[in-house]
Design goal:
CATH topology of the largest domain: Aldehyde Dehydrogenase, Chain A, domain 1
Domain Aldehyde dehydrogenase: 40-497
Structural class: alpha/beta
Helix content: 25-40%
Distance between the termini: 64 Å
Largest sheet: 7 strands, mixed
Family: Belongs to the aldehyde dehydrogenase family.
Strand order of the largest sheet: 14-15-16-13-12-17-18
Pfam families: Aldedh (PF00171)
Number of helices: 15
Number of domains: 2
Mean pLDDT: 95
Protein name: Aspartate-semialdehyde dehydrogenase
GO molecular function, one term: succinate-semialdehyde dehydrogenase (NAD+) activity
CATH class of the largest domain: Alpha Beta
Length: 503
């Protein structure tokens, strides 16, 4: 089969259909082909890879398995579409984004269902993510109209000086499996609003969410070549994006290790980089905090998305005066968390994404216990091979693996501290710097920690801090640049200075 085969309808899933898919109101949102140059595109030889439900192991779909050649075709399509898209009035690009936003909103329940089936997170969390994804499309539809030209007071006689922002060009977006819809819209809406065209590679664990968004983008009237989704193995596709001189900006969300490789690969073509990398966040609870409030903050900061979140509180430091009471109360809340498939009513903790994540979590727990930590909650993984029981480890020393490397699992590691200076030093003793959480009733202390902690974002006495209006990103090896806010839009633009003789 030719790599550019077009079809007008989704390919039916071969074999048994996942029972959850019968709940889709709009089955056309379930797409199995890549989307390149306005066409639903199969791989050479109709190569496919399976997408499986991590809760049940059932096959959800068999998706086109593309490679470097098709990635190059997607870049070529985006490059052809760039001049026309870039030349549109900002209001015209905004109109297409608003149409996309309206269609996503109409399909919220179906999109959440697809996400839960392929990713495993509880349905309520998937619905929350689609709402979050929507916020970026809405925000950047408005921000598209605010890329204003600046007039600079001239220091040269008879000269008028202007500074304008222009779209960088083709934008390559590499998105993760833990937030498959929100991470795509956060990047794509900003790029499209700025006048860039897009080539995107979603994680092969969760391509269906991206393909459903592409279906809605097509319905919204995005021109051919403006928005492209390339499915398949990450490495050859990402390498092609990084090597192609027509790609002028790469936006990646993933591990610090892979981020370093992408940055090195992009160096020869001097691409703009926007990267959201590893987290390993500290949560610091002072003994002046409300115990109930501290426990609820810790529960939410650690166990959302089953702990598979770069913002997850992986190192929980509790001041000694409240330490024992906190551990007891936290443990009581953890054992009440409901574990199960994401489609099951009331589920709070779903499966992990893959077997390697389970193995890493088990190794971190074993290592912590070997270093003297205590396991407070039971070890019971009877639901299936990808389920990890929410676990509380106390008295975890800083030398334990779980305190030194990122944890993507529902495992909470708690350790005591004595002084403010001590905990700041311990919290900063990492290569990561994405987000930190602080719970204290002392306003002056909160401000001191806001200055002292080496993190791009700080949450003081709350968990939810992200959103379309704020600059999301980290310090040190947690990333480059920012997403969201006007800064996220400007990341896809370049500055051009005009000096005009008016004499």
């Amino acid at each position: 089969m030719n790599a550019m085969t077009e079809t007008s309808a989704p390919i039916p899933v071969k074999g048994d259909i996942h029972p959850g898919l019968s709940r889709l109101r709009d089955p056309r949102l379930l797409r199995e082909m890549a989307y390149i140059d306005g066409r639903w595109t199969a791989a050479e030889g109709d190569r496919r890879f399976e997408v499986n439900d991590p809760a049940t192991g059932l096959t959800v779909a068999r998706v086109s398995h593309l490679g470097a050649d098709e990635a190059g075709q997607a870049v070529a399509a985006a490059a052809r579409a760039l001049p026309v898209w870039k030349a549109l009035l900002p209001q015209q690009r905004a109109a297409r984004l608003r149409d996309w936003h309206a269609l996503i909103m109409e399909s919220l329940d179906d999109l959440a269902l697809i996400m839960t089936i392929e990713q495993g997170k509880p349905l309520a969390e998937s619905q929350g993510e689609i709402a979050y994804a929507l916020s970026f499309v809405e925000w950047y539809a408005e921000e598209a109209k605010r890329l204003n030209v600046e007039s600079v007071l001239s220091h040269l006689p008879g000269a008028e000086m202007l500074v304008r922002r222009e779209a960088l060009g083709v934008a390559a977006l590499l998105t993760p499996w833990n937030f498959p819809s929100a991470m795509l819209t956060r990047k794509a809406a900003a790029a499209l609003a700025a006048g860039c065209t897009v080539v995107a590679h979603p994680s092969s664990y969760t391509p269906l969410s991206a393909l459903a968004l592409a279906e809605l983008a097509e319905r919204a009237g995005l021109p051919r070549g403006v928005f492209n989704i390339v499915t398949g193995d990450a490495e050859p596709i990402a390498n092609r994006f990084c090597d192609d001189e027509r790609v002028r900006v790469v936006s990646f969300t993933g591990s610090t290790e892979i981020g370093r490789k992408i940055a090195a690969r992009c160096a020869s073509t001097m691409k703009r980089l926007v990267m959201e990398l590893g987290g390993h966040a500290p949560l610091i609870v002072f003994d002046d905090a409300s115990l109930d409030k501290a426990v609820e903050i810790a529960l939410s900061a650690k166990f959302a998305t089953s702990g598979q979140d770069c913002l997850a509180a992986n190192r929980i430091y509790v001041q000694r005066g409240i330490y024992q009471a906190f551990c007891e109360a936290f443990g009581r809340r953890i054992v009440r968390l409901k574990v199960g498939p994401g489609l099951e009513a009331g589920t709070e903790i779903g499966p992990l994404m893959h077997a390697n994540a389970v193995s890493k979590a088990q190794a971190q727990v074993s290592d912590a216990l070997a270093h003297g930590a205590r396991r407070v909650t039971a070890d019971d993984s009877a639901l299936g091979p990808l389920f990890v029981t929410p676990t509380l480890l106390t008295d975890v020393p800083d030398v334990a693996l779980i305190m030194r490397e990122e944890t993507f699992a529902p495992i909470a590691a708690v350790t005591p501290f004595d002084t403010e200076d001590e905990v700041v030093a311990r919290a900063n003793a990492t290569e990561y710097g994405l987000v930190a959480y602080v719970v204290t009733e002392n306003g002056a202390r909160a401000l001191r920690l806001g200055r002292a902690l080496e993190y791009g974002m700080l949450a003081i006495n709350r968990v939810k801090i992200t959103g379309a209006p704020i600059p999301f990103g980290g310090m040190k090896q947690s990333g480059l640049g920012r997403e969201g806010s006007r800064h996220g839009l400007e990341a896809f633009t370049d500055l051009k200075y005009l000096c005009i003789d008016v004499q």
